[in-house]
Structures are given as C-alpha cells and as structure tokens.
Amino acid sequence: MLRLHDRRTGRPEGLPGGRVLRVHVLDGAGLRTLVVADLLRRVAGRAGRHVRVTGAAAGDWTAFNVQPFEPVEGAADADVYLSGDGSVVGGFCVSVPAETGDWQSAADLDPLAVRLALLDVPYGERLELSAARARAAGVRLDGWRDAVAGWARSAGRPLDRAYAAKAEAALAADLDAPSALAVLDELADADIAPGAKLETVVHLDLLLGLDLVSAIGRA
Length: 219
Known about the structure:
Blueprint: E1 3-6, E2 11-14, E3 20-25, H1 31-46, E4 50-55, E5 80-83, E6 92-95, H2 111-119, H3 131-151, H4 161-172, H5 177-189, H6 194-208
Parallel strand pairs: 3-4, 3-5, 5-6
Antiparallel strand pairs: 1-2
Helix pairs in contact: 2-3, 4-5, 4-6
C-alpha cells in the first residue's frame, strides 16, 4: 500500500481507497511540489489507481516531465492535498517545502537533471537547489543514460524483478525517491545481463520520469 506523510497525524498513512485517487496541489506550490505530484500520479497509477491531479500551476512544466493538471473543479473533494508553502487543510495533507536556491539563474541546465535533483532529497525535507547541485545531478543522469545506451546493444533479457521490487517498495513507502534512485546505481554495478538491466531501467523510468533511454541509438 502506498503511504504518505499526513500532516494531520505526523506520520505516514495509507492513502484513501477507491479506484480513483484525486490529488490537489494547493496554491503557492513550487516546481518541487509539482514534480512530487507527478511522481505520486505515476506510482499510484502503477498500483492500479486512476489518478486525477488538479491545481492552478501557471506555466508549462512538460520539460520537467510534469503533465498538465486538470481543471480545478472538485478540489474541495480531493483525497490528498499537496502543500508547497506550509498551508494546511482539513483533509489528508502532504507538505512539500518549495525549493530555494539559484538554479533558475542557469539557462544551460537539463530540466530533467533539475527533476533528478529535486527527487534526490526526501520530499518533506527543505532543499536548496543550486545550479551546481543541478549540474552534478546532470552528470549522474548522463552516466545512467550512457550506460543504458550501451546495454541496449546487447541481447534482450527479462527485467530483474528483485531490483524492480526494491525500487517500487521504496516509492510505496512515503515516495522514497532517493532510495529508488540508489537502486539505479546498484543496478549499474550488478552482475546481471545488460539486457536485464535495460528492461529494469525502462520499467522504473516510467515511475521516475527521467528519460533514461534518451541516448539509445546516438552515434
């Protein structure tokens, strides 16, 4: 069961049940809150839920692999509220402190390196995202992409269920993205067939949204 830290109780709680999960991002959210909302959509969707994310986020965030939100209608009936500025509502409320730092001053950053840097810190902790930190995330991201491109030249193999399950369990446990990302590092060094590594990364990247296959086929 997917669990999130509910501000009402101060501990991780199981999400409300039902086929549809309605998530509303409260006003005042930063990019980090939007990325966490997108991660929640992906993880809950993998678990079989139909996820509807609403909010009034201005701008186009698709470069960060954040899908546009639905209209705000019905926000009062949401199952989960995501707050980026400490606002509290009466329902299941998850606090995602907005990122600070100078990353927006650097025009050369890969938006998905920024997404990686945002995901690599537990969502409930404060995060100062400097341009240097985002660039370091970009180096890590490029390393994974290069490795994936190399694995793609090998014979296909089924995904490695143990590594996939480890990352999925981390994400189900309060969206522990840093631990899920660490599984990618472990996978790179694992003594398993390259084709299995590739399929496992493809499977997990549908949750993480980092376009890890983007270097396949490049000269």
